[in-house]
Amino acid sequence: MAEIRKQRGRIQLRLDAEERTALGSIVNRLAKQPVGTAPHAYEEPALQAEYEKWVVPELEIARDADVAVVRKCLSSGEDVTPLTEAHALAWVRALNQLRLAAGNLLHLSDDDWSSAASSEVRESEEFRMLLALSLLQEELVAALES
Amino acid sequence: MSTVAPVRDPAVAPSKRDQWLRDARWNVVVWNDPITLMSYVVLVLRRLFGHDFQTATSLMLQVHNDGKAVVATQPREQAEASVSQLHTFGLQATLARED
Question: What is the CATH number of the domain that holds B76?
C-alpha cells in the first residue's frame, strides 16, 4: 500500500495509480455512510439541542472538507503528494471517519475486533477496507508524531 | 455610537441557571470506541490539549481500560469548543460540570 516519508519536516505520501484507484473506491463506498450516532456533547437535553443546532452542522462541513482533501489528492494524477501538516491532519481525520463508517457497517463493538471478527465479517469487502485504512492511518499518525 | 445607557431588560437578564452554567468548570470526557486507533487518540490529545506523549498515552489507556477519561477541565465555552474539536477528529467526547 502507500509509502509515507518525512523529509525536512514535510510528509510525502506516495500512492501509485492502482493504489489511488483502490483508495478512491473506498472513499466512494464509505464517505456518505453514517459513522454511528450523532455527536453527543451534553447530558442535559436543552444544552444538547443547542449543540445540535449550532455546532453539529459545522462538524459535518468540516468532515466533508477533510474527505475533499483526500479526493483532491487522489485525483491529482501524481504518485507523490507533499502534505503540509494541515493536509496530513485532514487525511488522518478523513481516514478515521471512513474507518468509523466501516466499523458501523460491520457492527463492530469489540475492542478486539481485528481478531474477534467472525469469518464472515473477515471475508467482507468492508473489513478489508477497514484494515487497509487502519494501516494507512497508522503510518500517517506515525509520520505526524515523528 | 449610542450615548444612551443601555436599559437592562429583566426578561433577558441571565438567570441563576445561566450564571451557574457560565461559572462552573466543566470536565471534557473522552469515551472509548472500538474502532479508533490508540495512536490516533494520543495524537489528538497531544494536538488539542498540548499534553506530552506520556500524559496523552496515559489518558488514552485510561479511556481504553476504563471506558472514559477526563482529558481537560475548563470553563464551559472552552470545554464546549474542546468537545467540538474532538468531535471533528471523530472521537466520542462529552462535557460535564465538574463536581
Answer: 3.30.1390.10
